[in-house]
Amino acid sequence: MERTALICRSIGNKGSVYSLSALHRADNGSEDRYESLIRPALLPEGKVKGLTVPAEELEDAPGIREVWEEVRGWLTHSLVLVDGNSLALFARDLESSGAYLPAFFYLNLKAPEKDFGVEAESLPDPLETLDGAFIRVRKGCPDWETRIGMLKSENQPPEKPAYVFLDCETADASGQICAIGLVYDPPEGKPEEYYTLVNPERPMQAENLAIHGITDEMVKDAPTFPEIWPKLQKYLEGSVLVAHSALSADLFFLKSTMGRYGLSFGEVRYLCTCRAAQKMLPEMENHRLDTLCEHFGIPLDHHNALSDAKGCRELYYRLAALGDVGRFEGRYKLEGQKRSFIPRRTKKAVEIPAELYAEGVIPEKTGVFVLTGDFARCEREEAEEKIKEAGGTVKSSVTKAVQYVVVGAKGSDRWSKGSYGAKIAKAQAMGVPVLREEALWEAIGK
């Protein structure tokens, strides 16, 4: 019988699931394993019962929707073997993330002696313990099939949201918008396109002019951002905002321009097609919008804001045809605040001593990096995207493949004097150079 042994660990007895381990055995006898940490929606401060890994590692872990994509086929097409409420907690957190779940069939093997009258046997591998218990139950308990339970969601399938595919062009390095294009894709009906030049009320920098060709003369009579903001708000309300390099580009540009005029919107759902493509098409030479559009045969007049927005829309649907892109969805606050799945503490951040840094080391931009601490120039996730755009690789933990550990200039409020996180400690033990944030920007030219 096709079966999957499942163990999930949670924060406390009923808190968010933070790790998943699975052992799948198919009808033909083949065996597959999967293990992953899971970034929880909320991570409480201080010591927590049952939490056995540093909070820093959880911040870098994949979200529950990404993990679900890896084990979906096993859990929906086999009997799930559990030792308690693992499946129920995992299903609960999945539903909270917006996923719609099918029915699961499971067998609880927490107490095989009491429930099935068969001898319990503890093996070094908890997954093997579960699978072994199932084999004994199937042989020794004639009515074991009557004990199979079914876990079924009571929620209705989520309504299809509206999508806003967005691209912005900017006047200068601060991200002040000088042109914006979008495609509003409602749940029903035809898509709606919107494009306008925007007067940034400051001179166009030469570097930006060379990219998009929008001159000061072209925008002098265009509306300012506050004048178009009411229309943008209507598009954004209740929509999923989709952009290419969303955090390091378009969402940052929106937040920067809004901050200049004292505007705010609150939290939006967003999805980055660059990040989705990196995960779904790792074999590509790079994941720039023009490269991906050429790969899929999508017409593109690159750096025309409306054309880029339309190209992003077509790319999104091409990726959606390959798999569940919804697992890459996140949340972002358009009000000048940090985006984070995990609440930040308010205590003062701690910086690491100067002697821990490898001074004079210039990293290769195509190297393998691990990031830690809070970055001054942007969010850490934005820094990761910039590294990938430059041809580098980002890892979540320090391994033999890692060449550099980069520390954000703001340090971290989770560190204490003499204790600067597992990544820095491991880098020191393995001889991996620890670099300042400034060294990263100098290397990748951002």
UniProtKB/TrEMBL annotation:
Keywords: Exonuclease, Hydrolase, Nuclease. It comes from the Bacteria. One of its GO terms (cellular component) is cytosol. Pfam families: BRCT, RNase_T. InterPro entries: BRCT_dom (IPR001357), BRCT_dom_sf (IPR036420), Ribonucl_H (IPR013520), RNaseH-like_sf (IPR012337), RNaseH_sf (IPR036397). The keyword Nuclease applies. The keyword RNA-binding does not apply. SUPFAM superfamilies: BRCT domain, Ribonuclease H-like. Residues 368-446 form the BRCT domain. GO terms for molecular function: 3'-5' exonuclease activity; nucleic acid binding. PANTHER family: DNA POLYMERASE III SUBUNIT EPSILON, EXONUCLEASE. This is 3'-5' exoribonuclease.
